[in-house]
Structures
1.
Amino acid sequence: MDYVENATVPDISDVSFERILNADPREKIDIFCPATDISKYVMCLVLVILMCDVFTIVSIISTKRIPFAPKLLISITLICNSLFLVICMIAHGAGFTKPISWAILTELVRIVTVVSWTSVTILSLERVMCLYHPNLYTRIANKRTITKVVIVGICLTLCIKLSVRYLLIPLIMDDEFNFIQATKNSELIICFLGACLFINTVCYIAIFRVVKKLMKVIESLHITGSQSTDKHFVSTRNITCIIVVFQLVHNPLFISVCVNAFTENNSGNTRISALFMLIMCTVNPVLYAWRLKECRYVMFRFVGKAFNIFDKKIEVMRIEVYDITVQNV
């Protein structure tokens, strides 16, 4: 899931976790990739993806009609993606020489990953509750309650993760606490990612069933060619697209992390995990933000104001987004 998921992830074959632990502080060990032209191109790509993520975050926050809960959770997810990319760039350019530096970097990436996947999972659960219990959701889903639930959910998940890794496991193993050795263990993050993946899959299937059921009700009432039918058709298409893309991106990522954690010579596996993580950071803005019409309108509006372009397209999108009725005088 993360670029530095294991401290055992050398970029060259003769770098091992033991070598990192016993490294001379004056020796520079490049864990990620050697200073080649390819690595420079990859970092340029990371920078472009980071700029797109930041632009998307600003756009989604600036929207007015998107419900507060999806807006908040999507923003948190994209912020975590941006932090992951920043950590990758720091790790690539800083040239850390001490094992403790890599251990801290590993834990930071894991924390960012946990927050990101927790936000996505809460978003899926929130959408399921909105569809299956709309009356209850309407009564309790105000900004204050949603903010509290999100903060408590993320903080509770982080507390459980850190407590199990750095308190419970050392007590059970009856070993002397060693932060660097503790960061080497990846089973906990794998269990967490697997649980999030399962919950999200179940939620998306439940959402898909509700949307399909609504479509059947509309068809049984012989309502054809109406705006309601078109909207539900678009909803069905969108949720199908989300399910397919989510599985195509997250399942290979989860499998690569598992393989990376349970193999000894995992230099190539780590690059594959990093590649899938980079793909996820690229896909998430499209999957959760760009598909929303108002978010696209805000993005076009920002670009249009900056470069004085897209005037007609922006006006058409504004009418569509805010349901403005145009009357010919």
2.
Amino acid sequence: MRARYVVTSTCLKSGTISLTRSLREMFSGRERVQCIDEDDEALECSVNWVSGVLEGLAPYFEKRRLQVNDVIWLTYENEKVRLEAAAARKVRPRPVQQPQAQPAPPVQEKVPVAREGAAVSGGGAPPAPPKRVRVTGRSERRAPARPGHVQALERLELKHQPGENHDVFRAYLGRREYSLALGRYGETSPADMLGLRRTGNVDYAALLVPEQRREEAMRELGPLRVALITPEALEKLVALKKLFPVGPVELERLLKGGRVDLETVAALSEEVRRWVGERAVFSAVLLALVEYSRQQVFFTEDVMANLGEGGWDQEQVRTVLEALTGPPFLLLEKTGSGEYLLREPVADNLAHLAEYALSLRNRIVSG
């Protein structure tokens, strides 16, 4: 029998682990258990059924330098429990410092020097020493670097079309596209930018302004419907793209609000973090379900106990479990209120899902 356990801060402080449903089945009818670690060292542990914990694991936690949310696998075999830390941290031996070799003293060579006024063999004046000419490579002509805001918008998948008083950026979204005219605050007339949008030449008109002058520009523009974009906000959007695939759609949403600055990008970042957080909950639930075997019944509370510390919300966990009951996963079957049946091991289910996704991708590529 094998069980997975996620270490909590309470475990590290008390040197115990809580008796989850799987561990209760593993230790059923026992009050003392001998645990064997990865180095075959034995630990005499006791099962405290009143407190619902397995006691005596403090030396193991300290030895493996375990931290909160690390995973321990417990395997019951031959009346003993084998411990295996998925994130064991062993102390690395310090490198031995080799003594530095003393540099050898420089070798002094005697160089013969001709005496002044001495005759030169063959007659005539001594040959003049060759002139040293420093040869340098030709300076390469480099193209002027593009402005940072142009590079940022291109990284956000907009196409750049340079102009004299303003630049135009186009976003191609399949059946739809939009264009953005971008000038510089203090150099480009806001009325000219507004005229480009009113005549239909572009969909959005904006002025590039530093973040520190944003308030000044907002007061000057007043009711004019010209958007403001700060270079600092564009840099934040590019950095946010490394976390989540933001692009022209998210940028257009900010343009419709009239501002692409640090404040609006910060609000978008919070929204993206919620999306990424939902994906993290999905992954955590799948890892928690690894503990259960095929055709095993469990409750939502059991999964919550296996998740460890991470601020998991029970409603979010329940939403993930419900999603796993339907296609394309079909991993779980709901057998009651808050009760689920695991159809097959998580690893097998993910392998089947990967095959399905790969075959579908091949059809898309070949089509």
3.
Amino acid sequence: MIDQEGLPTGEHKARLMQHLETLIAFIGDSALDDDLQARLNMEFGPQTLAFQEMKNLLRIGIAEKWACYKIIDGPDYCRGRLGVVSDGVHDFVIESAKLKDVKGNFHTHPLGEINMIQPVDADAQFCGAGEGWKVFAPGTSHYPTVSGGLAPSSSFCRKGRSSTMTNIDQVLDRPAKRVLAFSGSVRRESWNSLLLNIAADALRSHGVSVRGISLRDYALPIYDGDLEESRGVPQSVLELRGLIREHDGLLVACPEYNGSVTPLLKNALDWCSRPCDGLGGLEPFQLKPVLIVGTSIGPFGALRAISHLRAIMSKMGAAVVPEDLALPNAQAAFRSGALADPDMEEVVKALTWRLAEQLPGPRKDRS
């Protein structure tokens, strides 16, 4: 099952999220420091019923595959987003992780990170700490490391500045390469939007910053030259063109309608190819690396639509990655918000790496 955020869910997830809402209200505006760590271990520590219930619910979530559902590096290193929790003022991104005698991927904590450590094995430790709470202050970084056995955990990061897996650009404090991701379908339970999210997460694992948007938020009339002449280019076009221009590459999920590109996607591209904002019509697309993925319920996996979109974007001047992903039989290709076939996960990682390799180096003009 998939929830409204496009994340896997199950019978017991809502109960855990209720506990997390209480925690976020407790944390509030607190500085992420040793004092908060001490207060968390006092009020919500292993000696409390709340801690033990959350610990049990996370283990149930692993079994129900809405927690720790993505394999990062074999069965001993898995992660999975639980969702965004808010008390009406503060938004936190909540991640789950399951590590067993593993040194994880290096990452930074721009605004800090809070970890709830829930060992299965009595001697298991997360970054030198046993069962309980560990807080990393803003500006710190580390390799999440578990020794002594298996230790699932939950991490809390303020939304918009959550911990990010880094590549060498980030380690050297250079701006991360940035990709804009969008789907040609805005249907609530779109297979292609799910595939887009999976590919976006794979890109992030390569150290790329990915911004996902919905074309629903950039509503446009069907392109009409007379309308453009009488009313000008809609504001949504200026905003969308600006996003395309300021990102280093594009990740596009391409559904197939009657053997071709969806009207939503084609219309957005047609409007965004119009000259405005002081730039030529196709200037935002020139040599822009683009990776196309798509899926359908049929045996060809949106292959025909993908080939049409490749031709369109190549004509617009984009540098489309030679490989693409046409995933057939969408109704059986996913399980609990992830790809059902582990081999296909490796294909996605390889394809997104190809896009990451083609992205230009960090630009000096970025703020």
